[in-house]
Amino acid sequence: MISIAEFETSFRCYYRPLTMYALRYTENIDDAEDIVQQAFIDTWDKLNEGKNICSLKAYLYRTVRNNCLDYRTPHAEEACEENCKEQEPSEEEQIVRSERDAQLWTAIDRLPQKRKQIFLLAKRDGLSYQEIAEELNISIKTVENQIAAALKTLRNTAIRIYLFFFS
Fold this sequence. Notes:
Pfam families: Sigma70_r2, Sigma70_r4_2
Domain HTH luxR-type: 108-162
Number of helices: 9
Largest sheet: none
Shape: elongated
Family: Belongs to the sigma-70 factor family. ECF subfamily.
Protein name: RNA polymerase sigma-70 factor
CATH topology of the largest domain: Rna Polymerase Sigma Factor, Chain: A
Keywords: Sigma factor, Transcription, Transcription regulation
């Protein structure tokens, strides 16, 4: 039987990577989060019933994957059939990719608030430096400096993951 503290630690460790993993199937963050939360609830229930789970990580990934496959709507199935004609990465590659994405977002979350805001406006939202400067009422040079500092930090902490995600 796993303690509440151990399960909470596992939740904190696996929640974000599992959500990124589920997002690859659902393409909707709210659905992905719902699926991951439900997977943790179901896993907790099984553990309380006395079920033995050898590898919690593997069990959670398998549960999330199965729940994502069950969750797909007919429209999502059609879209998947069109998109899946390309070679789909293996489940192991998807797990590695989701963990890498989670590391990146953790590193982004650790940026100072203003730097994070500027970085996300540029990289996530696709705004130009000029648009960011106008929106935040700062100089273009400040935007350039903040993005350069963010990239340097991410390069150092996320071990070049930012290249994969933002290229």
